[in-house]
Each structure stands twice: as C-alpha cells, then as structure tokens.
Amino acid sequence: MASTSDYDSLTKEEREIRDKEDRAREIAEQAALPYTWTQELGELDVVIPVPKGTRAKDLVVVLQKKKLSVGLKGQDQILGGELCREIKVEDSTWTLQDNQAVLVHLEKLNQQQWWENVLTHHPKIDTRKIEPGNSKLSDLDGETRGMVEKMMFDNQQKQMGKPTSDEMKKIEALKKFQAAHPEMDFSNAKIS
Predict the structure, then answer these.
(1) Alpha carbons 18 and 115: distance in angstroms, whole number
(2) 164-173 long-range CB contacts below 8 Å, 24 or more apart?
(3) pLDDT: is 175 or 95 the higher one?
(4) pTM here?
(5) Residue 77 forms beta bridges with which residues?
(6) Helices (DSSP H) in 32-164: which residue ranges?
(7) Is the N or the C terminus of the chain less surrounded, counting Cβ atoms within 10 Å?
(8) Domain ranges in the chain?
(9) Please, which residues bridge with residue 101 across strands?
(10) What is the rounded distance in angstroms from the CA atom of residue 92 to the CA atom of residue 55?
(11) CA 146 – CA 127 distance, rounded (Å)
(12) Rounded distance, CA 125 to CA 27, Å?
C-alpha cells in the first residue's frame, strides 16, 4: 500500500491508474478466499461453500464476540480465526442454504464502522472506497475487469504450479524465436 503523501504527489491520471490497480488486486485477493462476503454499516454476511449434500449436523460453527470458525465434523476447518471487529453474538446467526453453502450473518457491535476484512489474517479491502452495494465482476469497466480476470487466472495457475499469463507469453515468444532460428541450440536455455 502506497503512503498517502506518495499518492498525493501523483497526477490525476496516475491516481486513476493506481486506484484501478488497487481495486483489481483487492477483488482478486477477495476472490481467492474460501468464502464471499458483503457488508452494510451494521451487519455482515459471509457465504461459505460446502460439499453438496452437507447437512446442518455435519457442521461445526463457532460464533463468538471476536471469533468465527466454520468446518465439517472430523475435518480441517474451512475458515477460522479472529474477527476484524466485535459482533453481537446473540443477534448473529448461521444457516445452511440448499445443503451446499453456510450463510453466516454477523451483527456488528459498532454499527457505524466498515470492516476491512472478516478475519484479521485475511487480505484487507480499502474501506475509504466502499460503495454501498456489492460490486460484481460484471459491473466493472472493461479494463478493470480484464485486470481482475488476469490476476484471478494467474492466482489459479500459481496454485496449480502452472505458468502465469506473463510466463506463458515469454514461452510463446521463445518458441517463435526458436522456430525462426533453427540453426541455434536452445537445449540449455532458461526462461527468466
């Protein structure tokens, strides 16, 4: 995250580019989480996908003032940790939707504060740029959407140990160069 003074020294165009990049990175980071979440000033909803056919009695859900964990009995928890802020436990609930997702509804203790993340160890969002109503990929302009899709693709590729889109471009360029120069030996070439 750039410092405020650094941001202030940028031109309007540079700020717009920085904002788009930050927004795209934020969306990609949030998309990589094992859940989706939306918030209003006073409440927060977290949707955690679970295997199809899961029953309520298969779940272990813990809701505490500053803690949340969701998991399946006898397995690793799907998510767990310290909440970003305190909740009203008595007004917070969870339900199983269509035997394939857990909806956790959290009532914020401080109803005038946006949360930066659900769990303190997860990537943060920039609460200064929150626009009420959750933004979807389809709502973004073409350029920002492209950046987000590229980041999400690269993230998935890395997790599977496959090359990112930039690495794939380099490999493709090297192949074209090799085809154009069959007289050269590329057996020891390394791509960096």
Answers:
(1) 22
(2) 167/191
(3) 95
(4) 0.63
(5) 71
(6) 142-159
(7) C
(8) 33-122
(9) 49, 97
(10) 20
(11) 23
(12) 9
Q: Where are the beta strands (DSSP E) in the chain?
A: 36-39, 43-49, 59-64, 67-72, 77-82, 93-97, 101-107
Distance CA 16, CA 114 (A): 23
Q: How far apart are CA 109 and CA 56, in angstroms?
A: 27
Instruction: State in words which class domain 33-122 has.
Output: mainly beta
Q: What is the mean pLDDT of residues 163-177?
A: 86
Mean pLDDT of 149-163: 78
Tell me if 70 sits within 8 A of 80, measured CB to CB. yes
From 53-57, 74-78, 81-85, 179-183, the region with the lowest mean pLDDT = 179-183
Question: What six digits make up the tokens of 175?
Answer: 């192949």
| pLDDT tens digits, one per residue of 11-66 | 989 988 888 888 888 888 988 899 999 988 899 999 999 999 999 999 999 999 99
